[in-house]
Design brief:
Length: 215
Amino acid sequence: MISFLCPTRGRPKQAVNLYKSFISTQSNNNELLFCIQKEDRLYEEYINIFKINGISKYFTSESMPTSYLWNQMAFNAKGDLLTLIGDDVEILTKGWDKRIEAEAKKFSDNIYVITVDDGRKDKQQGNFMRCPHPTIHKKWIELLGYFVPPFFMHRYLDKYTQDLAIQINRYIEIKDVTFNHLKFDFSGDATGIRSRNWINYDKYIYEKVSGKYFI
């Protein structure tokens, strides 16, 4: 089973859109977990729209950095494979789960990071595809103590995870699966602005600690 982990804020309709695309494109019975924050002004709308659309797998939380939320959800997920996902994503490729599982089986020690096409024109970052939706096995968490590094707020979580996987030659690119990242369609809403406020902080942390932690 693959568990998708999605903290969502201020975008209940988009969260439902993600859920529908997830359900309609999977081949197996996977898990999509949401986390909504109690102080979100649309909290009640989330509860109502989730109920209408049959979404029952969600957590509630106080306002926390995204890194904390993603890690807490990872610890509570049922799947052996875990994928970070945002509410600004639409799954386009049918049978995506079989493709991910097939690639994961290539490493018996379960140490890897898998990425897919995020739908953007600038999907390449140097010699590699971007990694906004990394997939790992729970073994990754057993060894490191976390899915994403908890010293970041929101930004650089994917880059840190990607860079670490590249250094150990366990970065897997699946170019024929697309999780369409609508990031820039939502960059001007309150949630997008909130996450951008963390850029300088997370960049500072990344530049100071990433190399030492990679070792």
